[in-house]
Amino acid sequence: MAEYNKPIPVPSIESKPYWEGLRQHRLLIPRCNACAGFWFPPSARCPNCSSSDFSWTAASGRGRVFSFVIYHRVYHPGFAGEVPYTVGLVELEEGPRMISNIVGIPPEQVVCDMPVRVVFEDIGDIATLPKFTPVPA
Ligand code: ZN
Fold first, then answer.
1. Distance 108 CA to ligand 1 centre (A)
2. Disulfide check for 107: which of 60, 70, 82, 118 has CB 3.0–4.6 Å away?
3. pLDDT at 124
4. Which domain, by its residues, includes 41?
5. How far is the CA of 58 from the CAs of 15, 83, 84, 85, 104, in angstroms?
6. 9 lies in a domain?
7. Is residue 37 domain-resident?
8. CA 33 – ligand 1 centroid, Å
């Protein structure tokens, strides 16, 4: 693998199944078995009803750009060759919101409420990152 000089995710106990799912190109998020709500980021208890009874559930991977910013400044040297790039807050179809890159579209063309779908970026054998790309409305 070519040198990868961006930050590498470090899974926590709560997020380990999420990161393992990404390696298989599945977007797994917790779904409460008591109130049926989804949430993200992963945590040991449902933020809605505090139940610890939940299942890792495959999300559709579809969502919308809730908000976004365009990074013009290099905050980490690993991104020096990529500015400007888009960091979006994506609202998944299931409800939770995730921060990730909006890819496959020039930053100046990203708009709020744009439909997107997840794409998976493998970092060699190390990890897989979920990113989002536009889909036709
Ligand atoms: Zn719940």
1. 38
2. 70
3. 86
4. 16-134
5. 14, 32, 31, 28, 23
6. no
7. yes
8. 7
